[in-house]
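Deliverable D5.2: sample structural annotation.
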Amino acid sequence: MKKYRILIVFMAFFAGVICTVNAQAPYKNGIGVSVGNMQALTFKTFGGNHFAFQLDLGTKFITTNGHFKNLDLTGVSFWTLELNPNFMYECQLAGGLYGLVGLGASIGYDWNFMPLFHLWNRSSDYGKCGANGIFGLEYKFNASVAMQFDFRPGYGCVFAKNYDAHYFDWSVNLGVRYTF
């Protein structure tokens, strides 16, 4: 765990050192789609020259390890419908290329992808919550288009009345936005 903290601090320091001090935000707002581990509609807005807020609404397929009434269930699969807000620091690296680093959260609804024998009532509802980091690159073209590639490592939890599963929640995404 200590190695990950050192790595995150180093990456944040590195991003701060290479950023241009007087850079401007590449655009004010952008709306588009994202594909990868999470298929989503995405909206991004800049609150200043370096700070951005991104909101994704989409689906993701996850596999967890969990416990149900003291039984170990490894490899349980769910589809999630989740809302994922992220707060980011973004800076210009070169030309239209920008680097981004930030934190986010997720909240949503899950349903089981495969029936789990006779253990669960199929009408059960599952909730999902989590926290994530976000690291990536964004390229703003001369036209009103931006493309973003990001990696989001994090923690996730699927829960119901008698069930909770904690897992490494991650996604790698490629997004395209119309900017205005």
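Annotation notes: The beta strands are 29-36, 38-46, 51-68, 71-94, 97-112, 126-140, 145-160, 163-179. The chain has one domain: 2-179.
The annotation will be released with the project's public dataset once the embargo ends.
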